[in-house]
From TrEMBL:
Domain of life: Bacteria
GO MF terms held by the record: ATP binding; ATP hydrolysis activity; transmembrane transporter activity
InterPro entries: AAA+_ATPase, ABC_transporter-like_ATP-bd, ABC_transpr_LolD-like, P-loop_NTPase
GO CC list: plasma membrane
PANTHER family reported in the protein's UniProt record: ABC TRANSPORTER RELATED, IMPORT ATP-BINDING PROTEIN
This protein's name: ABC transporter
ABC transporter domain segment(s): 2-219
Keyword line: ATP-binding, Nucleotide-binding
Length: 219
């Protein structure tokens, strides 16, 4: 269970963008969070993935409250999350090859020996035919990591996926391929998903249930 309990967060303690928000994602469940641009969805997604420290409230991961954030998060909790941000081009270091992008999270967490097998498997999963096109790079960023030290969606087999406007900049066929890749991974691993966005049609089709930002903040 991923529990967000009464979270208040933002960039100025006197004027937080997320106020007293609570949301629960069950094991293996996919929850879509809908809301207008600028309401605080990305901020909440970053808090949920332990990337942004809230001012108040708790993130509880499988019964255990998070006590550290970003690099201070416990490794077991940090690696429980795979995160896909809305700007994949900024998430992938352009100096790395596609293979390095996929292998880096494993090396960074002392599991480099698994890299060759995982690279082969993930390249197949996300449909990288050895090309270096922007779409292929987007898919490899999704498969690997958002920053070299931050293990991403698939490499470390996370239990929770946080997707923040994952498909906002993609065409329809790449969107469909990515959603399929996420769902294949979830079917295989039992991972839960929090997908944040403003595409109601996509999230309602994709997720077990959707909640609107207003419902979270009305209470
Ligand atoms: N790093 C930051 N520093 C200061 N303010 C920020 C920062 N990031 C976001 N904000 C502000 O916080 C508010 C919420 O932003 P956030 O990105 O969480 O919203 P969002 O719902 O995800 O929007 P979008 O759908 O446009 O991404 C906005 O007013 C934004 O300008």
């Amino acid at each position: 269970m991923l529990e967000l309990r009464s979270l208040t967060a933002g960039y100025d303690r006197r004027d937080p963008v997320v106020r007293e928000v609570s949301l629960t994602v069950g094991p293996g469940e996919s929850v879509g969070l809908l809301g207008p641009s600028g309401c605080g969805k990305s901020t909440l997604a970053r808090v949920a993935a332990l990337l942004h420290r809230p001012d108040r409230g708790q993130v509880v991961i499988d019964g255990e409250p998070a006590r550290g954030w970003r690099h201070r998060a416990r490794r077991a909790q940090r690696t429980a999350f795979g995160v896909v941000f809305q700007q994949p081009r900024l998430s992938a270091d352009p100096r790395l090859t596609l293979t390095q992008l996929i292998a880096e999270p494993l090396r960074a967490t002392g599991r480099g020996a698994e890299a060759p097998d995982r690279v082969r498997e993930l390249a197949r999963t996300v449909g990288l035919g050895g090309t270096c096109s922007p779409a292929a790079r987007t898919r490899s960023a999704t498969a690997s990591s958002n920053a070299p030290a931050w293990p991403g969606p698939w490499s470390l087999r996370p239990r929770w996926l946080i997707c923040d406007e994952m498909t906002a900049m993609l065409d329809a066929s790449t969107t469909a391929a990515l959603v399929t890749a996420v769902e294949d991974y979830r079917a295989d691993s039992g991972a839960g998903l929090l997908a944040v966005g403003h595409d109601k049609v996509l999230l309602e089709r994709w997720c077990d249930r959707t909640v609107h930002w207003d419902e979270l903040t009305r209470a």
